[in-house]
């Protein structure tokens, strides 16, 4: 059973529009640093749109296999989808910058 609102996400056009709106809101609020583009479930159209979004907004671009072990319906080997070295360097720089401004509240 799915609630009526949840059922609407079965429509790819509806889900895409909700995603676009959420992405715009997160970017405007400075709360989105990157997008996972190179992923087995992303269609060529998804990848094109995500790449455009990333380039327009200076977002990090990552990739991942979505590895959940060898006993899954569609096993994917670790490393089948990778994040480029320059993106890893950007991610590392961002983590260092955030760590230097992080204040513990213990």
> What proportion strand?
5-15%
Which residues form runs of ≥5 with pLDDT under 50? none
Cα-atom radius of gyration: 17 Å
Residue-averaged pLDDT, rounded?
Answer: 86
Helical run tally: 4
H and E string? HHEHEH
Fraction in helix: 40-55%
| N-to-C CA distance | 43 Å
Largest sheet: 2 strands, parallel
> Which structural class fits the helix and strand makeup?
mainly alpha
Strand order of the largest sheet: 1-2
Number of strands: 2
- In terms of quaternary structure, the protein is single chain
Bulk shape = globular
Question: How would you describe the overall organization of this protein?
Answer:
The structure is a single chain. The chain is mainly α. It contains four helices and two strands; from the N terminus they run ααβαβα. The chain has a two-stranded parallel sheet. β1 (34-38), α3 and β2 (60-63) form a beta-alpha-beta unit. The chain is globular and about 45 Å long. It starts with a helix and ends in a 5-residue tail after the last helix. The mean pLDDT is 86.
